[in-house]
Structures are given as C-alpha cells and as structure tokens.
Amino acid sequence: MPREGILISNPLERLSGEQVRQIHDASIEILNDPGLLCFNKKAAEIFQSRGAKVAGVSGSDTPCWTVKIPEKLVTGALDSAPKTVTLGARNPDNALIMKGDEPRVFFITGSETNMWLDVDFPTYVNKSDPGKEIKVPEFQPRRGMVADLCDSAHVCEHLESVDGYIRTVNIQDKDITGDNKDVNKFFACLNNTTKHVMSGLTSLNQLDNVVKMAEMIAGGPDKLKENPIISFITCLVKSPLQFVDDTTETFMEVCQRGLPIVVSSSPQAGTSAPIKEAGIMAQINAEVLAGITLGQLVNRGTPVLYGSVPVRARMDTLGDSYGSIETSQYNIDCVQMARFYKLPNYSTSGVCDTKIPGQQSSIERLFSDIVVTLSGPQFLHCAFGLLDCNSVFCLLQAVLDDTHFQMIKFFLKSPRINEQELETVKKQIREVVATPQKMFINYIRPVMRSGEISPPYPFEGDGDSDSVFALANERLQELRAKPVEHIDPDTTARIFREIPGLLPRLNVYKGER
Amino acid sequence: MSEDIIELIKKNVIQGRVTQDDEGIEEGMVGQPGVTELIKEALASDVDVSGIINKGLTASMEVVGQKFENEEYYIPDMLASAEAVGAAMEILEPHLAKSGVKPKGKILIATVKGDMHDIGKNIVSILLRGAGYMVKDLGNDVETGDIVEAVREEKPDFLGLSALLTSTMVNMEDTIKALKENGLRDRVKIIIGGAPLSQEYAESIGADGYGADGFHAISVIESLNSGDSLDS
Amino acid sequence: MSEDIISMIKENVIQGRKTRDDMGIDETLSGTPGVLELTESALGNNISPEAIIKQALTPGMEVVGEKFSTKEYFIPDMLASADAVGAAMDILKPLLEESNVETKGKFVIATVKGDIHDIGKNIVAILLKGAGYQVNDIGIDVPEDKIINVVREEQPDYLGLSALLTTTMTSMESVIKALKENNLRDNVKVLIGGAAVSDEYAREIGADAFCADGFQAIRVLEEFETT
Ligand code: B12
Ligand code: B12
After folding, report:
1. N or C: which terminal CB in chain A sees fewer CB atoms within 10 Å?
2. How far apart are CA A484 and CA B211, in angstroms?
3. Residues B221 and B117 in one domain
4. What is the pTM of this model?
C-alpha cells in the first residue's frame, strides 16, 4: 500500500479557466517567438530534427542556438507525458503515486542548503529574580557535512508528515569532490530513510553509478523501473528561456534511462522574469513546457513532473523573497497550469526569508504551507527545516514544520456528516436537553480517543515563558534515538565493493564481521 | 464474593461507567453492570458499606487522579468517574448512618442571581460528588432569597457560589449579608468561584474560601473541614 | 546655463533616467532629456568632464545612496541610477584619459567555469559602473584560461569572480593559481563573491577580499584605491 497523502476535495484556485487558457496561449506564443536560447548542441539537434526552427547564434563565445518550438511538438509531448507518476521507495509502503488530475498532496523535504544550523540551549538567569532561569536557543551556522545529511534523513524518516525526502543539505566534507559527491549523497539518503529519495545530480559521470546503486537496492533494473526508489531534479532551463548546457545534458540522460525527473524552472519575478504575475506565469509555463517537450522527444513516455519554483525578488537586495505573498500566488497558479495539462506538479512552499527559527519563520512558512497545500499540488516541496531562502537547514525547524503539516492534514480531513452521524447526535441532543445540567461532556470520551479530536499543540509551555523550541528539541532528540532500518548488510557490502568513491565511514556495518 | 464485587465497582469507577449503558474506555463493556447496578447488587448481598466506599470508591478515585496527573486521563474521564462515584453515594446515603460511616458533608451550590454561566459550577459539582460529598445543585440565576431559604432548610455544611460576570459577583456579597441577617451565616462555610474572582475578593466579602477550579475546591473544602469540626 | 545642465544631470541621476525614453519616479519628466543626452549637451557647452563627474554624477549618486539607506529607494532605483551614471562614464572616460585626469580603476568580472548564476554578478557590475569604475563583464561559465587571457590583455586593476555553487567555487582557487603561474597575480586584486563563498574561503584561496554584496564591493575598492 503506497502512502495516502492528503486528498484536497475542493482545491483552491486563483485563476479562472479562461485565465489558465490565456496563460497557456501566451506560453505557446513565447515558445515560438522569441523561442529559447539553447546552449546544448544535442538538444538543439533533437529539436531541429523534430521540426523546430533552429538557428545558430553568431558572435557568441559559447556555441548557442535559438530554438523556436512549434505548438504541435508541445501538444504531442503533453499527450505522451505520463499522467500518473510513481515515485517508489525502499519500503514499498512509502511509495508515492501522483496522478495529474487528482489533487492528492504529498509533503516532501527539500533543497540543497550550504549551511547547517546547530542549536544549543544555554540557560539565562533573570537579573531581577535570580531564582528564575530560562533556556534561550542559540543558533550556530556551519557548513553541511555528509554526517548531517545522514542525521537529517534519519530524523525525516521518523517525521510523520514527511512523505518523501529531497536531500536537505549540501555535503562539503574535505574528502567530497565532484567525482564522488553524487554517490555519497544518494547513499547517505537511501541508507537512512525508507522513503522516496530525490536529488539533483552534480556530475553527469556519476549518473550510472547512482543508478547502479539504486538497482542493487531495489533488486535489479526491472525492479527499479517498477519501484523507482530514486528520482532527479534539474533546472535545465535558466530564466529567461535558456537551455543550459550541462543541466540539459543531465536531463536528457536521465530521461533516456526512463527514471522520474522534475523539470524545474525557478524564475525570479523582477530580475529573471517580469515582475508582473501575467509575465512570470507565461514565462515559467513556457520554460517548463519546453523542458517537458525535450524530455518526451528524447524518450517518449518518460515520467516527468511539472516543476515550479517561482519566486518574487525582494526590492532591497534583488535576492529571492520566498516569504513574499506573491511567491505563494505564483506557486498556486503553477499548480493550476499543471492540472490543466493533467501532469503531476512539483510546487514549493514553506521557505522563509529569515535566517533562524522564530516568529517570522513560523508565520512565513505556515502561510505558504497552508495556501499552497490547499491548491492541491501532488508533490509539495515544502521545505521542512529550510531557512534563509533555502540557504540554511535546521532540524529543529523541521520538527516544528512536521507539527504544522499534521495540523494542515487534520484540517483537510473530510467532514463526517451523514445520516447515521446525524441520528446519533440528535439522540444526544434530546437526551442532554432533558437533564438539569445540560452538558455533553459524557459524549466526549469515546470521540476523544478515536483520533477525531485534533491534538493540542505539542510544544505548548506553561504560559510564563515560550518553551516551544526547548520542547521541540526534546522531541528531536527522541527521534534521533529511534533506530532506522538501514540497507541490509549484504547489499551494503556489494555497494561498497562495486560503487567507487563511497566514503568508508558511511558503512554502518564496518567493523562488524 | 464481596471482594469480587468491590473489585468490579473499582474497575467501573476507573472506567467511568455510571450505568450498564455506558461505554467506558475498554471495548465491549456496554451491557455489563455499571457502578449503579453494582452498588445495588452489593447492598442486596450485604456487603459492608464502609468497605464499598473506602475500597471501591475512594481508592479508585485515587487511581483516576493518578491517571489524570500522568496525562493518561483527560478531564472528561475524571468527570465520568466522579459522576459514577456521585451516583453511588446517592444510593448509599440512606445506609451511611446505620453502618456507622460519617458522611463527608453536604454542599449546596448555585450560580448567583443574574448569571447564566453554569459550566464551571456543574463541573465543580460533579467533582465534589466524586470526592464523596452530598451535593445539591440549585441551578443558575438563583435569587438571593432562594439561596437563604435553601440554607435554612437543607442545613448544608458548605455553600458554593459561582459568578462569571463582574456585574453579578456583587450578588455574592449580598447573599452573605442576607445570610447574616437571617442568622444563618455561622452555620455554613462559604466558598466561591468563577473566572473574575480571587482569594482577595473572597476575603473582602467575608467568604471562607475561594476555589480556582474543581480540584482546588476539593482541597479548600477538605482543609476547611479538618480545621473545624462540623458535626451537624 | 552650465549650472542648469549640471543640476539637471544630477536630478536625472537621482531619477534614474538614462535616456529620454526612460521613466523616472517623477512622471512629468517623461520625454525630457536623460543623463546621456544631458551629458552630451554639457560637453557641447564646454563643461569639463571633471565638473560633470564631481558636480553632477557623484553628488547625484550620493543622494541616491542616502535615499536607499533611508529605505525611500529600493535596489531597482539604485540600479537605474547606477546604470545612468555608468552610461555617462562611458562617454567621459576617453576624454578624461586624454586630459590625464585620474580615473577609477578597471574591473573585470566573471562567473566561474561550470556556474551559470549571474543575477548577483550583473548587479555588482552595474553598481560598480555607477560608482565610476570601468567594468568589463565577461559573462558566465568562463573557463580559467579565458580569464587569464583577459587579465593579461586588458591589465585590469581588479578581477571579480562570482560562484554560487560549492562545486564551482573551487575554480576560483585554480584561477588564482594560474594567475601566479603566469606572473599576473601581483598586477591585479582579486575579489570574490556569491552565496557559496565566504571570508574564510577568500583567505583560504588567497583572494584579496570577499564581498557579501555590491555595496561592500564599492567600499572594499575604495579602500584599495586610497591605499
Ligand atoms: C461560555 C460562556 C458563556 C456562555 C455560558 C454557557 C453556560 N452554560 O454556562 C454564554 C454564551 C451563555 C454566555 C453568556 C454571557 N457571557 Co459569557 N462567557 C463564557 C466564557 C467564554 C467561558 C465560561 C466557561 O464556561 N468557562 C469554562 C469553565 C470550566 O470555567 P469557569 O466557568 O471559570 O469555572 C471554573 C472555575 O472558575 C471554578 N469555579 C466556577 N464556579 C465555581 C464555583 C465554586 C463554588 C468554586 C469553588 C469554583 C468555581 O471552577 C470551574 C472549573 O474549573 C467566559 C470567558 C471566560 N474566560 O471565562 C465568558 C464571560 C464570562 N462571559 C462574559 C459575558 C460578558 C457574557 C454576556 C454578558 C454576553 C452578552 N453580552 O450577552 C452573557 C451573560 C449572560 C448572563 N446573564 O449570565 C464575559 C464577562 C465579562 C464581565 N463583564 O465580567 C466573559 C469573561 C467573556 C469576555 N471576556 O467577554 N457566556
Ligand atoms: C536563481 C538561482 C538559480 C537560477 C540562476 C538564474 C541566473 N540567471 O542566475 C537557476 C534556476 C538557473 C539555477 C540553477 C541551478 N542552481 Co541555483 N540558485 C538560484 C538561487 C535561488 C538564487 C541566486 C541569486 O540569483 N540570488 C540573488 C542575487 C542577487 O544574489 P547573489 O547571487 O548571492 O549575489 C550577491 C552576492 O552574493 C554578491 N556577489 C555575487 N557574486 C559576486 C561577485 C563579486 C566579484 C562580488 C564582489 C560580489 C558578488 O553580490 C550580489 C549582489 O548583492 C540560489 C539560492 C541562494 N540562496 O543563493 C540557488 C542555488 C545557488 N542554486 C543551487 C543549485 C543546486 C542549482 C543547480 C545545480 C540546480 C539543478 N539541480 O539543476 C543549477 C546549477 C546550474 C549551474 N551549472 O550553475 C544551489 C547551490 C547549492 C550548492 N551545491 O552549492 C542554491 C544555493 C539553491 C539551493 N539551496 O539548493 N539557480
């Protein structure tokens, strides 16, 4: 049985059917004029051979072509792209089945942050009342390491509302290089969670080793096809409208192998896309359609997700503002576009602008988490633990986020109103009204333990000081202490024998006979 | 035999089952006798009343209290158990004197005139009953005169007054004055409660105690009880 | 008359209007000449390049900087003004060189090999141009040997390198090594920036400075210019 996700019965929509259509038409027009700049030769050739108008750009240092994609290529790709994409998992009960026309949401971690935030709880004594002590969290950023990635995958394995795992932290150990980063990254994730694992690829020459490792774990090439325990994400199109050489190459290679991949585009309204909603929407939709079209030309029927990470620029630095309200609006628009094409959608929520957990981070993330979830993306890259616009990851924040998502999940349960239920309560009402005290307390009890009543906020303190962080930290330590089901010893031994570049310290059976 | 039935009573108090129709926490108990039925059965088979109270009721409320403290039980569980004990005490009352059990005391409780809030007062009543007191609830929006009459007639050991409005809490002071005027003030200990009240307010109007919630009310009443012999 | 043109240039720098087609903040200015046209007519009226810079462009940018720090202006305003100043400087530079007036240094900027992030680099380039530096942006994904060649040929005072990926930042180290090997390291100050790098990293690879943003780059360059 795959994971259930949460089915949104009345998805939130911002765009009218007509507006969706208008964006689609504008995107189709943009794909034709100006088209895309393509820095990848092979991709340009593929487009040309299938009838796109391709012309070399003269005077450019790096070889580059303009590609004008006709509508029929796009419609063909939209036809052949699978409407249901399965993301498998080491534990098959954790598989995710995403149907483009069904707004069933799965919550997945995300993004490769460079910094890892350690949390400490020094104690402070009240100046005027030395008897009073409080614990105040202190946050210390440092570069992420592979041990942190293992730690994060392990904790996310136990976070109830996390449905799948995108590597959260960039591994920057001294012995990690371009040539061994991908295998170690994937192994660290796969070995510490039994949920689905998605990641970007650093070097194309590692792809075969990564796939081979996944095949060993899944039980062979056919088993991996059936149960794709890994998937990939690439930004093959750089906004505005440019196929990047290396990521496009990676994308085509993954498509060739038929493994699921997110076609992600991340325009920033104001800098790499128009500041106006109509503009960024027409552009991002064109960019994603261009990517999907290329994927289907490379390998008809290969599974792709419509990926969107649109964001608005902040006016004071022109950096990203994930916390801005528009960012949520664009993401919801993208969910609607993907649903219009009946393709499963990868959308973003929950990233905050602030650098440390606190009021601002909670407010920004909860806002976007709620509204974007309501719109019903299948793959919600909801940024568990991410801070500072995707630059910092903090496990404490991930634990807090888990409770946010449990609240959202609870909220989205469908109402239990039916004849039988109404009969029961009418009886209760008649009975209670006839008593002198007129209280329904007795009927609470059976409901109270059935899961029908939402739990209290788990990190509520005594009211005199805010103990949310301290209590969440206790929970984090509990989760860390829980065991995780690693890859079995035989497979591990085989992986370490046959896959070059793996760091010996990642072998949990090392030293055991 | 008597051991068995006391065990059953204890179990059903912990499960919070007043009658055989109640669900309890464990599955499949509906239809089996609840506390009411079991007490009647125990009386019919001449089980010692003090044994029923001490081993069956008081001991089990202690277990319930512990479970509440451990957060295994919530307030509704506590109230259901208290209600079961209350129902048991009502049946046992006529038998107390002849079996030499000293009753814990009688309490009248009311929400004062002009005030319709009664959720808190109801909870307090149930908990006091569960603690073994005989509680008579006069209801809400009760005229001062009616309270005075009830004190005169029922001769309670305690009078509990509830008020949730700053505009009605002054009626507590009036009630105490009226009791004095009627020469009844010394016959009864007065304890007050409700959101706008406080210990200071209780003192300022000459009440004997203030209860912040039902549990506090029990301990306040218990300390008033032991600090003063209340043979009536 | 010359007073007027100078103050109009300054006003248009503050408004961020490069040419007559640009919109400023004050809508009534649409269609009137911008900084470029005004600079040309100032030169036509025999106003010296030095006066244009010292009395119009620099004070104009100072006002913009103040408005930015009081949050009246946002970065896009700042960039528009910097862009206008940069365009004026393009006209004035050759004249200054002719008249031997001392100018601010020459800055080559690139995003390193393997990295295609350029939003940050572009912003830095515009701001530096606006601050009066002569900036040559050689693009993204620039291989090390190309950077070396440009340094050799153009002899810039400064080399700015941008990297956003931890996998590409190592290319900065290679560039510095190659500069040394080609005996060019002492001719040029190397500044690095981008989300992947830090102060420590700059020290580690022997760069002259790390800059968190374009403003810091301006401050750092000013220090270099005075020492
Ligand atoms: C529920 C409620 C109502 C319900 C009452 C339902 C009912 N069956 O009781 C309704 C909707 C009918 C109601 C009406 C009104 N209410 Co009202 N109500 C409340 C509310 C939200 C909760 C009260 C409650 O049940 N709490 C839960 C119980 C479990 O707690 P409790 O009552 O405090 O009881 C505990 C203790 O206080 C103590 N205790 C209580 N009594 C006693 C007695 C003894 C002897 C002891 C020992 C202990 C004890 O033990 C209890 C158990 O732990 C309060 C808000 C609040 N914070 O209290 C407002 C509140 C009391 N209401 C208020 C108001 C203004 C009104 C109205 C005037 C509104 C209107 N304009 O119509 C009317 C008044 C009607 C009237 N004449 O009384 C105000 C009072 C402000 C003031 N001026 O003092 C409050 C404070 C809300 C507010 N902040 O505005 N109300
Ligand atoms: C926008 C963006 C993109 C866009 C780039 C568009 C463009 N035209 O540049 C796209 C979508 C194409 C993209 C692609 C990828 N990206 Co990207 N991207 C970003 C993002 C979200 C914002 C960068 C940005 O523009 N910031 C705004 C500008 C204004 O800020 P800035 O660049 O930092 O520049 C300022 C300062 O740093 C400084 N500065 C910068 N350079 C210089 C140079 C000098 C000389 C000086 C003095 C100062 C200076 O001044 C600037 C102005 O204030 C960052 C996240 C982040 N937090 O940085 C990820 C991020 C950098 N990307 C990341 C990744 C992984 C990728 C991809 C590999 C994704 C993939 N799997 O396909 C590809 C890489 C492709 C490649 N080969 O380069 C990761 C990098 C992690 C890592 N491993 O190091 C990041 C950190 C996101 C994340 N957390 O996962 N990306």
Report:
1. C
2. 50
3. yes
4. 0.86
